[in-house]
Write a structure and sequence with these properties.
Elements: H1 4-15, H2 19-29, E1 35-37, E2 40-42, E3 47-52, E4 55-64, E5 66-67, E6 84-87, E7 94-97, E8 101-103, E9 110-112
Parallel strand pairs: 4-7
Antiparallel strand pairs: 1-2, 3-4, 5-8, 6-7, 8-9
The protein binds zinc ion (ZN).
Length: 114
């Protein structure tokens, strides 16, 4: 347990990161909150929600794929926004990433994004 001030300091540190570094931090954190019950797994993931001004009540959701560090020579992928998109070939969720190669945050499969 930490204090409000401690969480505020942590939030300030996270806000200062470019998005590809924030994703790398959360890649190390969110999987620890996975809950397994008999026959059921719930995974905490990072996602984007995109709305169009013509249909503001409809959001398109995409889960943020974890960059494949082996493919990116140990790096985090491009220092850019989450512009690459694709679908997981295993569990079919819609994915987004700053990187061209990533891992699905739900099933862990390697995925190509364009
Ligand atoms: Zn998947």
């Amino acid at each position: 347990m930490t204090t409000d001030e401690g969480r505020a300091r942590l939030a300030e540190q996270l806000v200062a990161l470019p998005v590809h570094e924030l994703v790398d931090v959360l890649r190390r954190v969110l999987p620890h909150y996975t809950e397994d019950e008999p026959g059921l797994r719930t995974t905490l993931v990072l996602a984007t929600a995109t709305t169009d001004e013509d249909t503001p009540d409809v959001a398109e959701l995409a889960l943020v794929a974890w960059p494949d560090r082996n493919h990116h020579e140990g790096g985090l992928g491009a220092d850019q926004g989450l512009w690459n998109e694709g679908d997981c070939a295993t569990c079919a969720v819609t994915l987004t990433s700053n990187a061209k190669r990533g891992h699905c945050p739900v099933c862990g499969s390697g995925c190509g994004l364009t």
